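Observation: inputs received (chain + magnesium ion).
Thought: call the complex predictor directly.
Action: predict_structure
Action Input:
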Amino acid sequence: MNIKQIDVFQMEMKMKTPFSTSFGTVQNKKFYIVKAIDESGIVGWGEGVAFEAPWYTEETVETSLHMLEKFLIPLVLHRSIEHPNEVDVLFHSIRRNQMAKASIEEAVWDVYAKLQNKSLASVIGGTRTAIDVGISIGIEPTMEKQLQVIEQYLQLGYKRIKIKIKPGWDVEVVKVIRDRFGNIPLMVDANSAYTLKDILLLKQLDPYNLLMIEQPLAYDDIVNHATLQREIKTPICLDESICSYDDARSAIAIGACKVINLKIGRVGGITQSLKIHDLCVQQGIDLWCGGMLEAGIGRAHNVAITTLSGFNLPGDTAASSRYWEEDIITPEVTVHDGVITVPSTPGIGYEVDESKLLKYCTSKRTYK
Ligand code: OSB
Ligand code: MG
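Observation:
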């Protein structure tokens, strides 16, 4: 491979409904798409998953664009690359900025798979032809609305319900959901809204048989998660705390989590994701693929990574229509009875509809 041109499309797409967590609400989603074109004319796609503001990790759309233009694109452009793993090596001299790195690395993986005429899923060693999915539901303005939304997605067949919690919206909400829906597969995600002082409160979740509690404590605090896990029965899943293979290794070594939510962007790309996947398999840690409210390209990459055998729990990769009036890929990602059928066509397996891409594009830059 030799990437001769990279286009970066800044995008703005309005979500059908706002999505709220303990730290922020997203509706008008700003993000960007990376298009990499190889010397043979093959096109690969990646999606930047940083948000506009740094409430989830430190990256933003603007920091990603800066890193791409000043550092990452120059490292990749016009370089002969045998395998996408080399992109990860090229980026070693650059600290963090995982989402920026992942967006371009994804595009190179897509080119690579298309050059082999194979699906991205098969190129990375994925074996599943269908993946089970759950749904992540934001904090709703009222309990009644929250229950309605849960009911709607249960009827659509989603295999696991995840709700967001924060202080003042936690134990009681779980109790009401259990009373209404019985023993459905249910989990909660705190997005770092608690501290160790809340240990007694978090213990009150134990009787509700939750699949897990996701990221209860600070994003940069693996040690206290280990302390908390010794005190509570509910398995802890880490999201924000795991930004690299070493984070995963450390967290597992000290017992800070029993489950990992993997997001390709948060860990710096597919090569790193594969390493973390293999580590989880080897260490017996449950693994599933999280989401960043992606449009179709990011969603397609999530589908591909989830075909690896270590992804043993339903992820957050819901249907395109859960987020968007129209997505920028054809076909859109669809869910039937809680299952996504994995495409077997080359690369990410979905076509990018460039007219829709341009419809939601607010500015475009070309690097060559
Ligand atoms: O914590 O997993 C999270 C959305 C935005 C930021 C962080 C998170 C989420 C979700 C939704 O839970 C995942 C999705 O449906 O894409
Ligand atoms: Mg989370």
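Thought: report the result.
Final Answer: The two ends are 15 Å apart (CA to CA). The longest helix spans residues 98-115.
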